[in-house]
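Please check both lines for our workbook:

___
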Amino acid sequence: MPQAVKAHLRNDQGCDMSARETIADVAHRFCLTHRTLRFWEAKGLLTPYRREARGRRTYTAEDCQRIAAIVDGQKLGLTLEEIRDALTADNALQLSEERLGELKAAAVAAAEECAARLRRIDEVGTAGSRTVRVMPETPAQVAANTARPARAPLRMVR
């Protein structure tokens, strides 16, 4: 069984320890929408503290640490189910070395694809003012481009 690796979170975006923050404050702090926070709540990833008479959601510093862990998990490319399974009691993500290796391999592949695209852009850019026909480089790209349906031109209707 692979040894578990624990990724501790930075608390630089955490909420004030003494105060409870509203959903608007937390959404703004993490560049999220209210709807995203409510969705995570519905999926069981988050449980806001409700103490106001009107039933408003308020978040503690611990909730903010959990939100930061969810955001970090999404940046790693984890699904919400994987994030829920990987979250520990102290709001850290705990992933196996095997899963971290898979995530790293996916990131390397994406970086190589971007590098190839940049090289192709440079080739097109150095062609000067003449018109250059850009052809896909791999069979997968050819298949992806031929699978797209042609769009009809838009016409103005009166």
About this structure: Helices lie at 23-29, 34-42, 61-76, 80-86, 97-125, 139-146. Strands lie at 4-7, 21-22, 58-59, 93-96. The chain has two domains: 4-96, 101-144. Residues 27 and 36 are 8 Å apart (CA to CA).
